[in-house]
Amino acid sequence: MNRLLLVPLVLALSACVSDPAPLEQLRLTEQTLAQAQTMGVSIEQSESLRLAQDKFSRAQQALQDGRNKEARLLAEQSELDARLAEAEQVNAKGREQLAEINQRITRLRQQLGAL
């Protein structure tokens, strides 16, 4: 009877140990990194994108070393960092546009005041 209990326990433990390779997550993360760069985010100017690239490299290394769970976590973190870099870029562009609009409004007010 002890053997009957041992078999499911061994199967359950082996299922926990063997995480599948996160190939789809790595592909998605790579696309997100490329998209951020397409939006004009540069590694030199964005700490978030720099972190994302670093974590992506570490995820690839973890995958090569067979540490699938670590690779998945790093790839997920990298994707989120890249999305944050995108959001920061959009926010910065929005602030620039707002500043430009405020300058135009100021000029219009000055022109109206001069009339």
Outline the structure in words.
This protein has 115 residues and is mainly alpha-helical. The chain has a domain at 17-86: Substrate Binding Domain Of Dnak, Chain:A, Domain 2. It is 84% helix and 0% strand. It has four helices and no strands. The chain has helices at 2-17, 23-38, 47-64, 68-114. Helix 3 packs antiparallel against helix 4. The relative contact order is 0.13. The mean pLDDT is 89.
Q: What is the terminal separation in angstroms?
A: 99 Å
| Number of H- or I-type helical stretches | 4
Shape: rod-shaped
Largest sheet: none
Brief overview:
The chain has 115 residues and is mainly alpha-helical. Helix content is 84%, strand content 0%.
Outline the fold blueprint.
Elements: H1 2-17, H2 23-38, H3 47-64, H4 68-114
Helix pairs in contact: 2-3, 2-4, 3-4
Could you name the key traits of this structure?
mainly alpha; Substrate Binding Domain Of Dnak, Chain:A, Domain 2; 4 helices
